[in-house]
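Incident review: delayed structure delivery

Summary: a single-chain prediction request sat in the queue longer than the usual turnaround. Root cause was a stuck worker, restarted by the on-call engineer. No data loss occurred. The affected request and its eventual output are reproduced below so the record is complete for anyone auditing the incident later.

Affected input:
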Amino acid sequence: MNKTLGTAIFLIGISACKNATPVLPENLVEHPMQISVLNDNGNNETVIFTENTDNDQDSGISVKKTIEKDENGAFTYTYQMTASRDMDIHLHKVWSVTDYSFDKAEFLLPGFWYKRNLRSPENAPSFKTAHLWSFREDRMSAPLAVVHDPTSKGWVRLERMDVLAQEGVPDATGGKIKVRTDIGSLGIGKMGDDQVQLNAGFPFEEVPKSYQSKLKLNPTWKAFYPIKKGETLTVRWKVSQGMANDFTALVAQTWETAFDKYRPAPVANKKKDPEIKEILSNYFYESYAETKDLKGFSGLWFNTSTCETTGVLSIGFCGKIFANAYNLLEYGHQLNNPEHIALARKILDSYYENGFTKTGLIRELVYGSNAEDVYTLRKQSEGLKNLLFLLDFDKRQGIRHPQLETGIVSLMHQIAQMQEADGGLPRKFDMDYKAIDNSKGSTQSIITPMVMASRYFKEPKFLEVAINAGRYAKENIIDKADYFSSTLDANCEDKEAAAIAAVSFYHLALASKGEQYDRYVELAKKAAYFGLSWYYLYDVPFAEGSLLKEVDLKTRGWGNVSTENNHIDVWAFDFPHVLQWLSQMTGEERFAQMSEVITSSIKDQMLPYEGHMVGVGKKGYMPEIIQHTVWDYGANGKGYLNSHMSVGWTVASIWEVLTPGRFGHFMETYPE
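Output delivered after worker restart:
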């Protein structure tokens, strides 16, 4: 094909709708789309086609472009490319926003990037490292990128409009590669002196670094699509504008629009809830371990393929011994199973006697000769929450633990003394309650046990601590749309800070009345949108032959973890129940619908049982690290499980998802 013909076909595509071609608003500038081809040596590329420019060589490709404007003022760009010879191509397209200042702009790539990602370290993606980034679309819970201007309140959104159904196996995780995939890229950043750009690529391009492993930025990665002679490739993007008073409103609007676009349906389950619990219960027996003076479920650092017990006992995240003991004890009574009851009692008795430090803290991590010198607000909070559930359970059985109750009251007063004037509490501290990490991003985790303790022990001081912690969370996390540092092995933007905040304000609401109740509902709703923004609304494609392709994993309903830890998992616990409550309180039906998607999707798709072991060594060991994009902890990569995992918390999460109503029942048992 000669240059004249190639260019003419492109112009026909434009002139066919010339009179009706919509014009972008003045503040948006559409930059020419470029097509690059990978040269035969595979190391260099050449731009063979630039939109609106006479091409000075035989491009070998014809391009038809159409732009459609819908009733909401959004512009959909469609590019159809037909090759006259075999070639490997890459598309790059940029839109700039001329009236937004980059230095002030906030960006959203849901489930991956919030505002400017400045909570993240320099060895994870953020504007600390560079002012222009492009990422694979499957890193995002919905393939879209938004820029928000806090001054004008305006936003501009760029989203991929094609179905992402095909994935190939890349022959390298850096440099220039060939791969047939539907995964493109979306980018954000600076243009010129202080303007903003949104960019798109197909296939994907990761610039200036590719995030391949935890806290490891690799060089640029650019993919080229092998298009065959006579083949036509179609790629579509949408550009839209709107207004949002703040970043919280932006996240809410973006999630609602994306939910309405994808309309994720619940996933069909192969197992009923009682069957799932029976399968999970195998973990309690297979993981049993003893140390010098403690007995428990060994929940951490398993080899995924063997699940050999490591002997590591962890009370909060990631082992959840108290939560799992409570689950087993309650389950044993429900089934009238003395073996379940005896195992749970054996573990609890050992912890009630030896599970606390000399200063009254719960021993968080016990194995070998490990000398604990760091304690965390989140683990102490999770331990206290489940101890209070256990005290309540035993009280209903006519069993009391006066010495344990005294210890819990003392510990909670010690934690209360760490609370600062703003209501915040340190993230980590030593055995003497001296702060080691003054970050307060996980303050909301103490709210639930303090609310429970205020009722169980009839101690108003504990409710006061919970209310003040809620005040801190409102003023510093929710009002500032700054959800961070609740994931224990990362200190960055994360899902759990938002989801735990939503759950915590639900619990505060149940301890409140009147206008205060309404305020807590609204705060829970705001936090819930951020939590939901981390959960996938579509099904990420996996390459043929990969584990997750063979399992036919549907990723809708699975949540990404954090900017640092870029994998999906079954973290949910009470969050779906809170979404159901919020739906009832606010009339937002999407919350209830997404609750069903989350619950159905994480229950049994990756649950290992006979004939369905999903790469896991033991029945019931719900895997932790599901690698849904090109990211890993150092092993296996996209489409596979990591080689090591922690399981105690995954079992506890699914169990709690299957057991709604616990907190409400507790509050009804201990009214004001």
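Verification: The longest helix spans residues 377-396.
Action items: add queue-age alerting; document worker restart procedure.
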